[in-house]
Amino acid sequence: MNSEKALERINYFLKNNPVMIFSNSCCLKSKMIKEEFDNLNIDYYSYDLDSDENGEDIKKVLANKIKNSSLPQIFVGGDLVGNYEETLKAKEDGILEEILKSLNL
């Protein structure tokens, strides 16, 4: 998959999923952040990059877009919240709740 197609796919995911998690299926932090959203009763879409033949290409383009290659990466309302630690901090600080409420989630 070329970079342009990968970026189109990323943008499609972000546009069509209010809470979007880019993750790896075997990553503990990816599993833990999904549990956090489950505990909040917030629907999300998770794209496991290691479960798709184009996942590595998408991961490279995503890393370039956000200037960070770590996973998971969480987006809410199309905007980057951050990785696992950054998202937990946003939750603890009440920022995540404000963002979710502003989107009626």
Automatic annotation (TrEMBL):
Transmembrane segments: none annotated. GO terms for cellular component: cytoplasm. Signal peptide: none annotated. It comes from the Eukaryota. InterPro entries: Glutaredoxin (IPR002109), Thioredoxin-like_sf (IPR036249). GO terms for molecular function: glutathione disulfide oxidoreductase activity. One of its GO terms (biological process) is cellular response to oxidative stress. Residues 19-81 form the Glutaredoxin domain. PANTHER family: GLUTAREDOXIN 2 (PTHR45694), GLUTAREDOXIN-1-RELATED (PTHR45694:SF18). This is Glutaredoxin domain-containing protein. It comes from Anisodus tanguticus.
